[in-house]
What does this fold into?
Amino acid sequence: MQDNAYLKCIDPQCGLEYPIKSTNVQCEKGHLLDVIYKNNPSVKLQEVFYKRRNSQGNIFDESGVWRFRELLNFCQIDTENIEECSKYLVSLDGAEGRQSKPYHMSKAAKFIGILNDNLWLQPEGYNPSGSFKDNGMATAVTHAKLIGAKKIVCASTGNTSASAGMFAANEGIECNVYIPAGQIAPGKLSQAYQFGAQIVEVDGNFDDALKQSLDDVQKNDGYTVNSINPFRIEGQKTIPIRALEYLNWESPDWIVYPGGALGNTTSCGKALMELYDWGWIKKIPRIAVVNSVGASTLADLYNGKFEEEELRWNKGRPNTELITRYYDHLDKEGILPKTKATAIQIGRPTNILKGLRALEFTNGVVTTVSDSEMLDGMSVVGLNGFDCEMASGATVVGIKKLINEDIIKKDDVVVGILTGRQKDAMLPVDYHMNPENKFAKPPKN
Ligand code: F0G
It folds into this structure.
């Protein structure tokens, strides 16, 4: 194995480095880690990636993740050697990320108040397990295999557990999933059971479940596949990369995501930092993160809603004490994250510092939307013939809100990521039963 990729602590004052086969998700001082590549991929690869779309049966070319394998080559393999790829790269038969690309959705554009040509929505729900997670799980489980792990472990609001369960079943390894009891969509829970994962019900919320799952890994030697794992982030970089490829590598003005644990924000930021550094893109799109009103840690801290300080990455010197005080405040007041969009019901986003770094690099913004707004967003996506879940509806109404506030300009080009597919069958039914809802079409007797 060559020595072109390694792990590095994100804190510029610390900067500890680890070999690629390390399973640390944090440095010994407790800071998050990045996968760093020493090489500068040539722009000529854009043509190679494009050609691979006509894959002629090679699953690593079919895959929407591994098609871009030169940009994620932490296994440091010969990327043209398919036998070597098969030995290392984990794939759901090339299906992860394969279906995802940005689409125009005219009814969503009309609702938002933006020109149809300027709005692109990219459904990630058509991944095999039904959410964007498969992009990052492909790379995390590849790393798990590289180090010989026999069991993967995660905490989840549902989609991570579905994806981890599916990959584990395919690879013939064990999978433990920690879920906040009673707080995940039934369709997601049933997927984890279906794929043979061992469910561990936690009496608490996602933040408690994550803590328990990380303890489990410490004590019982599993491999963490939550987005705290830097290898998850690598695969999720392909979400904006696919969008950029589709737009002929011409940057949009904005890329918009719902915000939970901030793995997506992180991976989008990292992809943009790398592509800009390599000269693949000339303009840096701005990232907009959309929190739920009921789970708004990032929005509160970023927008100065707590102690009137606007939390920033601050070139690698963020005020982490402000975050600690905010969490203490939540605990003291007994404030728990609460939203019907359970996918993003998260109070302590693990990747907050990497998220802040992404926002600083892209001059990003953070906003919040209510549950009823998210349901409208979800429903209008459906009217275009696309399926998405409530948390993904946040992207649509987040864009609408930012346009109304004149933060996103009317002629800006916007890519919004629809993170997951509907897995709570009764949500649309309940929505349409109530004629007061904006897009409701109640049944006739
Ligand atoms: N949208 C959906 C559908 C999700 O499932 C999640 C996170 C997010 C958005 C938030 O993304 O964490 O990258 O900011 N779901 C995780 C899970 C936490 O366990 O399935 P993020």
Observations:
- Residues 131, 156-160, 227, 258-264, 343-344, 389, 391-392, 419-420 surround F0G (CB under 6 Å).
- The domain at 106-127+232-433 is CATH 3.40.50.1100 (Rossmann fold).
- Residues 389 and 409 are 26 Å apart (CA to CA).
